[in-house]
Amino acid sequence: MTALASGLALLPGDMPVWHARTGDGPWLEAAHRAARSGARLVALWGGAGEAHAAYALPEGLVWLSLPCPGESPACPDLSALFPAAGRMQRAMADLCGIAARGAADTRPWLDHGLWPDSRAGRDYPFVRVSGDGVHEIPVGPVHAGIIEPGHFRFSVVGEKVLRLEARLGYTHKGISRRFTELAPEDACRLAGRVSGDSTVATAWAYCMALEAACGTHVPERARWLRALLLERERIANHLGDLGALGNDAGFAAGLAQFSRLREDWLRLSKDCFGHRLLMDCVKPGGVAADLPPQGADALRRQCDRVERELGALRDIYDGHAGLQDRFLGTGRVDPPLATALGLTGLAGRASGIAADLRCDQPWAPYERLDVRMATHRNGDVAARVAVRFDEVAESLRLLRALLDGLPAGPVATPLNTPAENALGAGRTEGWRGEVMVALAFDAQGGRLRFCHAHDPSWQNWPVLEHAVMGNIVPDFPLINKSFNLSYSGHDL
Amino acid sequence: MWRLLRQIARAGIPSEAPPAADDALRQQTQDLAREILHTLGRALAIRVVDAGSCNGCELEIHATANPYYNLEGLGLQFVASPRHADLLLVTGPVSRHMEVALRRTHDAMPRPRLVVALGDCGCTGGIFGEGPATCGRVSNVIPVDVAVPGCPPEPRAILQGILTAVQRNVHKRGLG
Ligand code: SF4
Known about the structure:
Chain A is an alpha+beta fold. In chain A, 41% of the residues lie in helices and 17% in strands. In chain A, the strands form five sheets. Chain A has a five-stranded mixed beta sheet. In chain A, strands 8-9-10 form a three-stranded antiparallel beta sheet. A three-stranded antiparallel beta sheet of chain A has the order 13-14-15.
């Protein structure tokens, strides 16, 4: 841990997080050491005149801050060591004006040249592929289906994709700035809307960061209820995706069955927690409400029912030749490529990267649950489907364990007043992968100086471009869905 | 195959037995479905544009098509192009980056056309508000017929919003 950088101080909080301020040299040196030791770059962002990087080590998170003063602030480039840093650095330049010195790609990323203080031009310089018979297919930002907006440019020969280049940022809403305008307690609602499908994962990470900065300890029961919410969110998303993946491969009955299960799931969430998607159920200091008296039984019964149906549907998916034909070998990211590019979360586990925060760094109450990680080595659509099936089964087990072990006591506590310039970071394993939130209070301790909410989609969007290569254009929706990355969570 | 058939048989048809609270809506919507068919001679075509949402609203739009709400059974249909859409369903606060795309989609629709803004964001800009990166509510960018609050609005509210826009116009002057 201390080998990464000097002056690391352990921050208070539920998760082990070390922080240090560095200079240019140590910033780069730490990145080299992290890369050598196999640490993951979790996030890189700009805030309050500093560049920030967070690395995941076996012992915990190391958060480094690099002050970047001057007329044209800059920091050393990390994308040569961590490919995923490329777009994060470009976003940092767009949002904070801190450039990555020596980076190969310095094109604007989130800035489309339409803000009052834009530094970008209106025309985006796409990479061109030329050659005999190569032509381009531009798609979006508005898509044919009901999905978020983004632009994809395919270079194809016949039906075959030679290259895909995505351009994102269409849903950029100025979330990082908005965090600093809201009262920190209210900003939890914003954290829960960075990516609606991960509202529990992000709100929990935000609360963890806020509670760490305020030195507040959340009651035991609240932690267990938060985990209950997080596992319900995971299952809700997996059920939706499994149906949609069946549908994208021409199996509409799969969509009908899974969307029925998902609807039942959301309705019981509403009955027990007050919101179908569980928005605003996690709040600073605990959870918004306790489980109603009959809630636990209803939740248990639903777990039994879904488990039965899931088994039947898995048999159908596995035994359906047409489906398997579309799933197997499609959109493949093999383990070496996944490792090189830093693929993370569910998609990473489907490509042999055994990382799941609930197992690697079990925070309360996960340290009591012994989570079994689902992994696969094939890295294709079929593997991402299989991991989803396995994870639903495991989360059903976790839900029962959480209901059985739910400790008594209060479900929320008031926040303490934060110290001036207090820092805090939180991490959770959302359904898509690791979500991290890092924030800093101002000198008065009343407002946030910055808050960065990091969705794992940042890491995985560039990998999608590799997954599509060599596949045919009509398989893109299926491959895209098998990753199901967030546009909003990435665009911020 | 037999496994699939067994699963389908076992699951039954949930849309045939709606919860009691649905009854009023169903009555009204069945009448309306007839009216839509009578006026248009086909299903109402809906084009969805996410103008910057958090994706929560999209999740609930998807849910309207599940067997419980049975959107298509009501004579409504999502379509892939604005050129044959009767109604534009817009989610999100409109980000600066989607402003032009939203206007263009709206312009590409044949007249008469309807616009429904969805969710607290579509109605007011929601928690994201208005700022250098967002235009806020949908009506700041294109004219809106009906705005449906909620964060996100539940599937029933989404259907109600769509049907309200249609009903108002079917009764007034054909459609639009
Ligand atoms: S209304 Fe709520 S769910 Fe819909 S886009 Fe806005 S924040 Fe997301």
